[in-house]
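Hey, I'm writing a tutorial for new members on how sequence and structure tokens pair up, and I'd like a real worked example in the thread rather than a made-up one. If someone can provide the structure for the chain below, I'll link this post from the tutorial.
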Amino acid sequence: MRTTRTSDLWWKSSVIYCLDVETFLDSNGDGTGDLTGLAQRIDYLAQLGINCLWLMPFYPSPDRDDGYDITDFYGVDPRLGNHGQLVEVVRTAHDRGMRVIADLIINHTSDQHPWFRSARRSRNSQYRDYYVWRDTEPPDTSGEVVFPDQEESIWEREEKTESWYLHHFYRHQPDLNVANPLVREEILRVIGFWLELGIDGFRVDAVPFFIKDAETLSANAKEPAVPDDPHQILREIRAFLTRRKGSSMMLGEVNVPRAEQVEYFGGDAGDEVTMMFDFIAMQALYLSLARGDATPLATALEDRPLIHPTCQWANFLRNHDELTLDKLTDKERQEVFAAFGPEPQMQLYGRGLKRRLPTMLAGDPRRLRMAYSLMFSLPGTPTIYYGEEIGMGEDLAAEGRMAVRSPMQWTDGRNGGFSAASPGRLIQAVVRDGYGPDHVNVRDQRHDPESMWTFMRELIAVRRTCLELGWGEFSVLTTDAPQVLAHRCALQGSAVVAIHNLGPDPVTVEVPLPHLDEPDQIVDLLARDGVSRGVGTLEVALGGYDYRWYRIGGEGLMGP
């Protein structure tokens, strides 16, 4: 395969870094991170090896849901900066070899959005059909709410017009009626606007909600609704995106069962979301970590459906929401809770955890590094959340999902170097105690060859040399040790073999490699010891929570 092809489908071999502008770096001392602060840290991200930057919402918002409640899809929140400063960030990132994608919220707006403020005042408003309404009292929908500790129904009564509006999330986030062609036109206009300003693609929020909502599709739009297949909406968006900027992509937040995933990719045509977070593999990985048994993860990976060659899975260990475990059985979920979040204040909505990985693993550096090595070695594209590169912890005192959205820790100084403001003015509190800036910060770790930051930078560098992991054919390799996951990603005469011990005890495994003819065809990508090379097999001695990456053959593909 030509290396030049990777620039056409760059998302298949990228490393994605997600951050929230308001918690990354405050340049003016008002307590809120801003675009000027982010621009000052683009070189930091480039040094780390990031080549795709994902920006969480930076749009104007009442900020009742951390910016996901938007009042202007075309704007920049004045607390963060302006359009000119955003363009400076994008331009600087591009100059350093980074693509920039932005959150695209098409399921709902804030109830303070001008569209909804008009729609709720009158049934005759031109924006009335931008939202989903009903005139009769809704049935019990408590089982459908996303945040069961905050809402009891997905419908809210509007007294002025004596009707109910749909909101799958908070009541202050009314759902858009995407069956209305005018709404779809506006969504495309928003996409086109940000593409013109240099954005390279979008992480699309809450995709299944606006696709699967039968109430939305049966709403009384003023013009004919979408075809019977609601996925036509995604196809329209993808076609527009590709037409306007051929190198752009859509990364979908699609947490659905395996049987439905191919449909969201666009099936054989591959014409809907370009990438999809693999929530199922992520949850299986945590179950495997809890058990010290690779079987759940191996099964989840083998069960992945075949997808279009231009599409890709996005792998992650942490994101900005709760660590959802909704696809595990009740018994499996309790196993993960017991291992990584046994106390009620560590859990959320009865289905997930509000912790970061270092605290869940009790700060064990061996286990933490093994987990990241494993995630980066999986077939697909690795995605990390800001602060993971230094092993940041969470603030359990923060409400709900905000526990993992604390300010970035740059130094051991006041407010972790995030802001010069008084602590009481910060947008979020800085993590305290053992995971606070005194113990975990960028400045100290960048100069420490043994630090988590140095490990992550080296891991990212190796991962970016391994086209096989983003493009190759995946297979699980059989060993006689259930605690070990050995897998292979093969690509045109070359393969990367990764071996990870999820258990605390040393183990020696024989990994079958039937196509291995010459011992010197093996390159140790992480320069670690403990392999006995033989024809047809690898005998690997692993310590507790140990790991190896090998390239087999294909010496000239991407180099060692």
